[in-house]
Amino acid sequence: MVSELQRLVDAFGARLGRSIAVDDARLRLLAYNAHTGDVDDARIESVMHRGVSTALVAHVSEQGAAQASDVFTLPPCPRIGITMERVGIPIRYDDALLGYVWLIGSDGPVGDRDVELLRESAAQAALVLHRGHLGVDVTRSHARELVRDLIAPDQALRTEAGVALVEEEHAVAGPVAVLVAMVGGEEGEPLAEERRLALELAVDRCRRRLPPSRGLALTRPDHALLLTIWPGARSQVIERNAAELAEVLREKLDAELGLGRAACWVGVGGPRPRLTEALSSYEEARRAAEVARITGTLGHVVAHKQLGVYALLGKLTPDQLAEGIHPGLRPLLSNPAHRGLVETLRVYLDHAGDAQHAATALHVHRSTLYKRLHRVEQLTGLRLDVGDDRLAAHLGLKTAELHPRLPASTHAPDVVF
Q1: What's the pTM?
Q2: Cα dihedral sign, 273-274-277-281
């Protein structure tokens, strides 16, 4: 697209006998020919940096350039480097603004013939830019399809997608780590369009922080993933970089959603040596985000390796989880009247059976703690002074946190006697 624009600019510059430039809609320079007259600081900045200051963008906007339908004049504004008048015309395709064509006043007055050629150049530039945008959209769509195949269950499909991503230069080869972002809502339920768009925008902005071909994004109905690639990096470096990027992603989600960090979670999968092994990292990242969302106790950015026993429990189906809960615990967990007892048992076990620390955490006297634990033993048939029973109780509580059909065990204690 750029080379085609350059040929167009060179051709019209020769016909006009003056300098001509093409910017995109954000005033980023796309193509220009040799200058025949003097230039000002704004033009030098545009050529040197392929962009302009925010003040210049604001000046162009204030002059109504984006709303113009034909040739217009941009007056000088010396304080931002524009000391020479510009004559411009918007580049539009089906009324969509794609950019601008500019002539500079130092080349002399703009006559009727110049205006006609300017209009002709804008029309041709519109076709070039429109085709370029279509090509970008098609390329991005194809890349998303390949990322979808990269995390598919079929090994052959994953291998083919990995090869295609590298060969078509969507991605570079190297070790990968996947981040998964989730926002408020029930697991597996499609997000509302507003939240889905916010999620997609946050992930894409985070992807742009990576070098070209080092990040690939994909939005699913209830989450989004960012596949990051780290050529030549060791696992520890990848883990650190991925964790930092995950924090940035959470911040961008906070900003886009405007709901506070309590409504979003980011999971980080472990590094894998090849692009075709991204599925494993993706599954870990998704599991970490889901567990963080469900438990509410692990924070809002969680690496899979931080899950502990939840990493194992998270692999099980709800029915398998339910089957693994000690039968004596089930009546306790399913009865809302026993929430206080469940919380007491959880705190006691989380403190490794240290009664003093558990009582302090619960803000009760040790004698009250012992009475509650004795009541738990009566209701469940468990012996908390027996190692296997304590393990079964602790695993049962952790399992219940991941089981959607059981009440959460992390509520504040209520009256139990």
Answers
A1: 0.55
A2: positive
